[in-house]
Amino acid sequence: MLLRKTLILFLSVAGNWLTWNEIRGDEAKPKAPIIEAGGGQVRDPEKVRLSEIIQKVNELFEGDLTENDKLQYVDSVIKDKLMESEVLVKQATSNTKEQFAGSPDLGAEVEGAIIDALDAHTTMSTQALESKRVQREIIKILLDHSSLYEDLRERASAV
């Protein structure tokens, strides 16, 4: 039996908590009237970056996946695995971005990161599904250290 839970993720950008809908600009918020030419809003660079990533990963993956699933997989899980690579650290510090992008090591490291992420998540998910104690401890971590309750209340009040 396949169990699936969707996590609702909030990002802290400059001290403000944002939902994915806010990042994408889907929130139904009243717009300020344009008073003069050039009255457009300055876009938060982090919102722009995340929006661009969401657009790109939506083109890559299909199936029963949320935008959060896709974004977290690429921008957090795989990127974090790649950040552990000493080979890539050396190449990034010694080359231009264009040279780095053309490195044959980059593709191999990405493939390794995908395999490592799959192994790690499979191991953790299997342990969590097979142990009520692990599930209880995850709940404790989410409530005591990850602000799950507070973030859900914040989300509810934002709607």
Write the layout of secondary structure elements.
Blueprint: E1 11-13, E2 16-18, H1 20-24, H2 45-60, H3 67-83, H4 86-94, H5 97-101, H6 104-130, H7 132-144, H8 148-158
Helix pairs in contact: 2-3, 3-6, 6-7
Distance between the termini: 34 Å
- Order of strands across the main sheet: 1-2
**C-alpha Rg, in Å?**
19 Å
Counting structural domains, the number is 1
* Overall geometric form: globular
Low-confidence stretches: 1-17, 27-36
Helix content: 55-70%
Succession of helices and strands = EEHHHHHHHH
Task: Quickly count the helices.
Answer: 8
Number of strands: 2
User: How can the largest sheet be summarized?
Assistant: 2 strands, antiparallel
The structural class is mainly alpha
Q: What is the residue-mean pLDDT, rounded to a whole number?
A: 81
Binned strand content: under 5%
What descriptive keywords fit this protein?
disordered N terminus, 159 residues, mainly alpha, two-stranded antiparallel sheet
Write a brief structural summary.
The chain has 159 residues and is mainly α. The protein has helices at residues 20-24, 45-60, 67-83, 86-94, 97-101, 104-130, 132-144, 148-158, and strands at 11-13, 16-18.
